[in-house]
Amino acid sequence: SQGPITGVNKDIAVLQCHGDCDPLVPLMFGSLTVEKLKTMINPANVTFKTYSGMMHSSSLEEMMDIKEFIDKHLPPVD
């Protein structure tokens, strides 16, 4: 069992992505996961994105959203 999330980790930014046609992990489970996560850390920092027609895979749209998230939250690498 893990202890409560405290300190700086309470304010970590999270991007969760899910395809709405995922046959392995139904979208409902992604939705339940993000709602639980919002009770554990600052809910304002949790973003849940769904992708129409995407199965248990990835898409260019998802990769662009991930790139944007990384660019926003991590310092540039020289």
Automatic annotation (TrEMBL):
One GO BP on record is: fatty acid metabolic process
Question: Gene3D superfamilies given for it?
Answer: alpha/beta hydrolase (3.40.50.1820)
Q: Which residues form the Phospholipase/carboxylesterase/thioesterase domain?
A: 6-73
Coiled-coil stretches: none
Instruction: Extract the InterPro entries matched here.
Output: AB_hydrolase_fold (IPR029058), LYPA1-2/EST-like (IPR050565), PLipase/COase/thioEstase (IPR003140)
* Its biological purpose: Acts as an acyl-protein thioesterase. Hydrolyzes fatty acids from S-acylated cysteine residues in proteins such as trimeric G alpha proteins or HRAS. Acts as a palmitoyl thioesterase that catalyzes depalmitoylation of proteins, such as ADRB2, KCNMA1 and SQSTM1. Acts as a negative regulator of autophagy by mediating palmitoylation of SQSTM1, decreasing affinity between SQSTM1 and ATG8 proteins and recruitment of ubiquitinated cargo proteins to autophagosomes. Acts as a lysophospholipase and hydrolyzes lysophosphatidylcholine (lyso-PC).
Q: Which family does it belong to?
A: Belongs to the AB hydrolase superfamily. AB hydrolase 2 family.
Subunit structure, interactors included = Homodimer.
The protein's name: Acyl-protein thioesterase 1
Q: Which organism is it from?
A: Notiomystis cincta
